[in-house]
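Please go through the protein record below and explain what the tokens say about the fold. Record follows.
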Amino acid sequence: MRTSARTRGEGPISSSGTPAIPVFLYHAVADDPPGWIAEFTVTPRQFADHLDAIADSGRTPVTISAIADHLAGRAPLPPRPVLLTFDDGFADLPGPTAETLAGRGLPATAYLTTGAIAPGGRSLLPPAPMMTLDRAAELERSGMEIGSHTVTHAQLDTLSGKDLAYELRTSKAVLEDALGHEVRHLAYPHGYNSPRVRAMSARAGYETATAVRHALSSDHDERYRIARLIVRRTHTVADVQGWLAGAGARVAPYRDGPKTIAWRWYRRARAVVHGPEFAG
């Protein structure tokens, strides 16, 4: 018998006294992924088990717009929300993954790397089966909200101002042309960001941006680095149940630690020598 989150308690509590918000970050859902993304891929069976855990938790699945509306003071969140996000745009997304979610009536948010999915596009992602841009509208019809994941998947916090503006603005424009409406949300590749990246994301017209941080979000999280929990193939259903209960990770917002800052400066130094590098 499954144990619900209600019987286990809510776990960590945000600064306002309300429960933490789990925001899951998935990549591919596949049995035999390319080696470079295998660590961040779950099998269809694992994915189904995760969705069972979400259903049993009593949480309300939402898209990023619901969190944006709450953080902007426009609308309250539903009770005990949870957000499912998918990065990059792997080939399974508009096929079996979207079908599985739609079959359960679960909304989600997909952040697409336009250089990897648009005709003639280029990205820093290693080779992998990817969806195509013309299927983005199909994702929306299945219940997914679409956000940008930049053009090339570069480490944004190492780029020049010109290159950063290109990544933010061009990906947004490409998706808006394909979908016929504004795209308001961004996910930083591999979560890499900085105060400058966050400020430029706001100026580029994004209303929110998600990072990684491997932390639980909250109703007081930062609009331009919303914390997500990166799902690896080694994570168990018990891990997922713990996050759904608000346990097993720290709760955002919190300041970057010395190791995060030092790693950023190291990557910036590498970028000076090697140029833009894949965020992964």
